[in-house]
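Following up on my earlier thread - several people asked me to post the actual chain instead of describing it. Fair enough. Here it is, all 510 residues.
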Amino acid sequence: MGDPSASVDDETLDTSHPGTSVSNTSDIPPGDIEDLWEACTIFLDSLKTSAEFIKSLWNATLDDPTLGLSIEAIYQLRNPIHRQPSIDDDMRTAIRLYLGNPSESTYETNRDILLDRLPGANIPTYYKTTRMVAELTGIESMVHHMCINSCIAFTGPFLNLDNCPLCTEPCYDQFRLESTAGKERVPRQEFHTIPIGPQLQVLYQEPGSATHAHYLRNERACVLSEIEEKGCPDKYCDVLHRLDLTKAFEDGRIGENDIVLMFSIDGAQLYAKKASACWIYIWVLFNFSPDRRYKKKHVFIGSFIPGPNNPKNLDSLFPGLSHLAAIQKEGLRIWDSTLQQELHSKVFLTLLAADGPSMMHVTGFVGYHGKYGCRLYCGLPGRCEEQGKQYFPALLKLTDYNVIGCLHGDINVKHFPKASCKQYHKNLRHLISSPNETQYRTRRLEMGISKPSIFSGLDPHSMLGLPKLAGSDIMHLGVLNLTDLMLSLWHGMMDCTHPDDKNTWPWRVL
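Reply from S.P.:
Thanks for posting it. Predicted structure:
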C-alpha cells in the first residue's frame, strides 16, 4: 500500500485531465451556456434529444398551450389575489373532507353520512369540491400522456409521437381509435404535474405560513450583517450558510423577497405486497426554517409518475421544469399577506437531491460505478477491479496493481480536486461533440458525464450551476452502504473475484 499522506502524483495524474478540475471557479456566465450549444455540432441522436429538451426550456412561457395550464390559472399567476378566499361553513367542511380523504369513493361515502345526519347541509360532490379548490387556490393539475410502460412522457420533442420511441408501444388506446375512425385518441397512461407557482402564491396568501416563510428574509439579513462585520457567518447551522448561497446573497442573485427551492426525486412503493411503484418529485422550500421545511404539510408535490416500471427518460417529464423556467423568466408575483403588499419574486433553485441511480438521470453524470463517479463531480479518479468493470474511489494504489488507466499515485484525502462549473461545461462540450458511438464511450469514461442535464435549460441567474447544484448523499452512504460492507467483511460474506479466495483470508477474533 502507498503512503496515505502522499500527495497526488503529478506525473501519473494530470491535473489538466478532462475529468479533473483544477480550481474552484465561479459559475459559468449566463450567456456562455447557450453559446456552448450553438457552437457544438451534435452527431448522436440521444444527445440531440437531450439538447432539444434543454432548448425547449430556454423558450418556455406560461402561455405555452402544451403545458396544459388553464387561462384562469395563468391569469392568477400574473395577477395574484390580494386577500384570503371567503368560504362558508359548508364549504370549509367539504374542503376538510376533500383533503382528508384520498379517494373519490371515500369522500362520497363520508359525504352521504353527513347529509344523512344533517339533511340541510350543502356539501358539494367530489367533482364540485375539486373544481372549487382549484378556483380558490389557482392550483390545478397539468396532465400529459405517457408510455404505458413508463418509458417516456409524450412531451417536448416526443409531443406528437404516436408510439414510444423506446418500446414502440402505442400512446393511444387502439381499440377506441379504430372503433371511432381515429376521432377518439384516448391515452393509455397519463402523468400529473402540480405547478409550483400557484402553490407558492397560496402559501403567501395565508398570514401564518407567510410569516414562517420570512425565515429566509431574516436569515439573509443576519448572514450579510455577519459577513460585513466578521467576514463570514458565525456558525454553519443551515444549508443557507453554504459559501455558494452566501455569495448569492452578497451579489444580489437572491434578494430578500426571493424564493429558494430544492428539487428531490425518488421512487415510491405505495403498497407493501403489490406492484405499485411510482416516482414522485417534490419541492422543498428553503424560505422555511430547517425544523419546518421538511414537514409533510410544508413539502410541495411536483409530479406523480405512474409505474410499475421506472421511467427511462426523465427529461421528458419536464412540464414542471418548463413551468419553473417560465416563472424564472417572468418572475413570480405573490401577495404577501403579512407585509400586505405584492412582491415580485425570483424563484431560485439551489439544490438537487436524489439517490445514486436517480441522480444519474437528473445530472447526466455516469454514476458511482464510473471512473469519475463522484456525484459532486470533484474529479477524483476511481480504480477498476482487475477482472471487472466497476470503479471504486480508492485513494491509495494497491500493491502489485497494474490496471491500465488507473495507475495514478496515492491521493491525499486533504487535497481532493475541487468541483468547477467551467471545467464541467468544457467537459460537456467535448462529450456532446463526439462524432460517433465509439468516441462517445471513450469520452464518457474520461469525462464522467453521459449526457447534458435537463436543468441546464433553466435560467443561470436563478440557480447554482452544475455541478454545484447536485447534493451529496450522506444517508445511503452511512446507513446502508458502509454498514453493509463492514458487516459482510467481518462475517466473511463479502463478494470477491478470482483469483481472490475467501479461504486464503487471514482471520481475527474480535
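Residues 261 and 474 are 20 Å apart (CA to CA). That should answer part of your original question.
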